[in-house]
Every structure is written in structure tokens, then in C-alpha cells.
Design goal:
alpha+beta; 29% strand
Length: 357
């Protein structure tokens, strides 16, 4: 049933939506709800910052049936020993974004490699990593593959209009957060512990904390609120604002279809979707801390997502941990690579000569 698929889509996305909205927080003595809504406006003051963070999967347990398959134990070991981390910097004027992704593996196959990504208003560059097992040509390793964003958009039948306007994006998320918090009970999901109580390290220089907590028992009422109240209000917001539609690349036809799909969801469909979710997720616990520095900027985030999932009689569980931090907000941030020199750049046509594109 089509409406059932729509419900399933919302069930999959609502956690991500909530975390993104909750992550835009700022310092305040008011309620956590007011703190979250006020911070998006504060984030418009960010003209530059450094960044760092990490992501790791822990305590991953897979069903015996899966572990019995050839290579499963080795794959599980690689996942458990892997850590993704990143550093980078951002500057608004002239626009430059640098992100250096790093993958580290421990154990018998210990190794690490980096994937630097650089982007300005018109182009993006990816540095070819040095991964010995791939056997890449020596004259290719270390080069920056150049992507012309305008040309790529034209190839896909769209138009590259440049990076989104920061002020407009801030206002959009501010309006979205206003919709969300108009319909949810902040006392159910938000609190304001001290930094040390939340386990945030002292070196993060966090002054205030907003904590988001979602448990398995809270999923059902939250989903019903999303489907019945929040989603229709968001669609109406987008339908009435052409600039927001351009920002999200949605057409009136897209929104009309989404609205019709929502209206076709019956209470029975909704409950069936929730039951399916509860059958799959035997347990779910999401705890996220958002740290605000003395200047009122949200500069620290950590999230721990624990889940036990059952599918076709097979059960597995694991924990995902994410930490992200901004540094030197509005300071003179340092770029490790900057825009690469012409002699270090390779075009897509040149890359094709190596048989990789």
C-alpha cells in the first residue's frame, strides 16, 4: 500500500530530522526550547570556523546466521576496529570549505588513509588517497581531481546557482524549528544538564548544555505528532514560500503530491507503520548533548545511538557514537590545503585516461 510506504519513510527519517533540529542550539537561561530556537539566528553570525569530529561503531553484535557466513567475522572485526574522523575549516568570504576525512583501522590490518575535499563557489576538488592495496599509479596519487559544479549540474539537467545563501538557510531552519516546537512537549525530550554531568570534556570549553533524549517508549507519540501535525505544517510552509522551495529544490507539484500522500494516511495505516517499527526495533535509545560556548555558539555535539533490531527472526544490536566540535568561530582559521595549485590538479577527462571515470 502506497500510504504505508510513506509512513515507513517518515519512521526512518524522523530521528535524523530531530537530531538536526536539536543540534542548532545557543546559550540562554530560558527553556531548552527557547534556547534551541534562538540559536539558529545566532549561527548566522558564523563567518568562519575550524571543525573536527569522529564516528565509531561499538558493541556490534550480529545474528549467528550472519556470522556463520564466509568472511562475516573478518568484516565484523574491520567494522569494530574502524574509526572515521575529520578535520577541516570553513570561511564565508571568499567562500572556501575544506574537509579532511580520515579512516583508521586497528588490529592485524592496521592502516589509515585520508581523503581531503576542498570546495569553493564554483569547483570541488578531491585528493586521490594513497591506499597501497588499490595499486593506484604513482603519478595519480596526491593529485586533486577537479569537479566543475556548474558543468556537473548541466550534465544532470539542472542549473548550478551557487552555494545556498547562509542567511536564508538560517531563517529556513528557524522557521522549521518553530513548527516542530509548536507541536512537541519540550519537557519530554529536552533538558539542560551541566557540562560535567553530560560527560563533555573540559577542553571543549562548553558553558551551557542542551540534552536531547529519545527512548523506545517515546517513539510512538512522537511519530504520530510528526505525521499528523509537523509534516503537514512543514509542507504548508514550503508551499507558501518560493525561496524555501528553491533552497530545497522542491516544486509545487512535489509538495502537492506529499500533501495528498499525507492526507491518504489513515489511523490504521499509521498504527500499522508504528507496529512495524516496534517489531523491527526491539530497543532504541538516543542521547545527544549540544554544548554552547561562552559566546553563545553551539560548538560541541556528541550523540550515542543504541539499537537492537530484529528482522526475519534474526537479532542484532550495536552502538553508534558521534562527536563533533567547532573551533575558532569567527577567527582566522587555518586551511591545510587551500585551493590546489594548477600543477596538482587533474581533470575528469584526464582521470578517464587512467580508467577510473
Amino acid at each position: 500500500m502506497k500510504s504505508r510506504k510513506f509512513v515507513s519513510l517518515f519512521l526512518s527519517l524522523f530521528v535524523v530530522l530531530t537530531l538536526v533540529l536539536s543540534g542548532c542550539s545557543s546559550s540562554s537561561k530560558s527553556s531548552p526550547k527557547d534556547t534551541l530556537q534562538g540559536a539558529v539566528e545566532k549561527s548566522a553570525d558564523m563567518k568562519s570556523y575550524g571543525m573536527k569530529g569522529s564516528l565509531k561503531i561499538e558493541d556490534l553484535n550480529l545474528p549467528p546466521e550472519v556470522m556463520a557466513e564466509e568472511g562475516a567475522a573478518e568484516a565484523l572485526g574491520l567494522i569494530q576496529s574502524a574509526e572515521v574522523s575529520w578535520t577541516g575549516a570553513y570561511r564565508l568570504d571568499p567562500m572556501l570549505l575544506e574537509l579532511n576525512l580520515m579512516l583508521s583501522l586497528s588490529g592485524d590490518l592496521a592502516m589509515s588513509f585520508q581523503l581531503p575535499i576542498i570546495m569553493n563557489e564554483e569547483k570541488m576538488w578531491l585528493k586521490v588517497p594513497n591506499i597501497p592495496m588499490l595499486g593506484l599509479p604513482e603519478d595519480l596519487v596526491g593529485k586533486f581531481v577537479e569537479f566543475d559544479l556548474k558543468e556537473l549540474a548541466e550534465e544532470q539537467g539542472t542549473e548550478w546557482t551557487g552555494m545556498p545563501d547562509v542567511g536564508q538557510s538560517v531563517q529556513f531552519f528557524n522557521d522549521i524549528s518553530g513548527v516542530v516546537f509548536e507541536h512537541i512537549d519540550e519537557e519530554t525530550y529536552l533538558s539542560a544538564p551541566k557540562a560535567e554531568e553530560a560527560g563533555i570534556p573540559a577542553e571543549a570549553n562548553v558553558k551551557n548544555v542542551v540534552q536531547f533524549h529519545l527512548t523506545q517508549e517515546q517513539v510512538e507519540p512522537f511519530i504520530k505528532t510528526v505525521i499528523k501535525d509537523i509534516a503537514p505544517a512543514v509542507i504548508e510552509l514550503l508551499s507558501s514560500n518560493e525561496e524555501y522551495r528553491k533552497l530545497t529544490e522542491l516544486t509545487p507539484e512535489d509538495l502537492n503530491a506529499a500533501k495528498a500522500e499525507l492526507e491518504s494516511v489513515t489511523d490504521e495505516d499509521l498504527q500499522a507503520g508504528i507496529d512495524e517499527f516496534n517489531q523491527m526495533f526491539k530497543s532504541l535509545d538516543i542521547l545527544a548533548n549540544f554544548g554552547i560556548n561562552g559566546d553563545g555558539y553551539a560548538t560541541y555535539t556528541d550523540a550515542t545511538i543504541k539499537a537492537e533490531i530484529e528482522d526475519a527472526g534474526q537479532t542484532g544490536n550495536g552502538t553508534l557514537k558521534i562527536v563533533s566540535e567547532l573551533t575558532d568561530v569567527n577567527g582566522d582559521v587555518k586551511f591545510e590545503f587551500d585551493v590546489p595549485a594548477a600543477e596538482n590538479v587533474i581533470t575528469l577527462d584526464e582521470l578517464a585516461e587512467y580508467g577510473f571515470y
